[in-house]
Amino acid sequence: MSAAVLELRGLRKTYRLGSHVVPALQGVDLLLQPGELLALTGPSGSGKSTLLNIAGLVDRPDAGEVLLRGRTVTGIGETEATLLRRDAIGFVFQSFNLVPVMTVADNVDYPLFLSGVPPAQRRERVAQMLAAVGLAEHANHRPDALSGGQRQRVAIARALVKRPSLVIADEPTASLDSHTADQVLDLMREIGHAQGAAFLVATHDVRLLRRCDRVIALLDGRIVNPHTENVHELAMA
Hints:
- This protein is of the alpha/beta class.
- It has one domain (about 35-60, about 80-235): P-loop containing nucleotide triphosphate hydrolases (Rossmann fold), CATH 3.40.50.
- It has 8 helices and 10 strands.
- The protein has helices spanning about 50-55, 80-90, 105-115, 120-130, 150-160, 180-195, 205-210, 230-235, and strands spanning about 5-15, 20-30, 35-40, 65-70, 70, 90-95, 165-170, 200, 215-220, 220-225.
- The strands form 2 sheets. Strands 6-7-8-3-9-10 form a 6-stranded mixed sheet, with helices on both faces. It has a 4-stranded antiparallel sheet with strand order 2-1-4-5, with helices on one face.
- A hairpin with a 2-residue loop joins strand 4 and strand 5 (about 70).
- Helix 3 packs across helix 4 (about 120-130), helix 3 packs parallel to helix 5 and helix 5 runs parallel beside helix 6.
């Protein structure tokens, strides 16, 4: 088996709210393999956002270890973390986070531009990715001319065009109808498997939970392993 894309070992994180100490994560272990689509669910306040932020190198744990492709990245400096986020980690959000004044093609191209990819390679990779997500004919449109599902497909193309090892998705189907949500999930699975990218997806969407490779639930900062029907209850909490 290939090396795990992401490994979390004994993650702990607390926040202070005045005199109160809030334990967000209490010893979380997680292993994510290439091509795997893993759903992370749980009620509000369970620690999902904290876990995503630490896995995406946006935040640091108080204790524990984060490994990306077998390499420990817990204690790296901010500059190196920024470069890893730029080159090795893709992000997909519920609100799409597209740049409204840029065309679809320019939105997808932007990560490659930041990484210094030569223009000819950028044009080729952007064209390939837009074709893969079925939006080649919309390359010169701006995001406000697209439907919600189309904008989410642009966001997925932008996340995957740099060929990341890890994609972190926060409620990627929450604002989509069932048909479009199915299309978005199929797209993530197809391209993820083709590129060997692993997806860590935080979601309350039962439609998404049913179709991921694996589902884990967080409760009070700990991973729990309830029966499937209880996972669905947690998702609706």
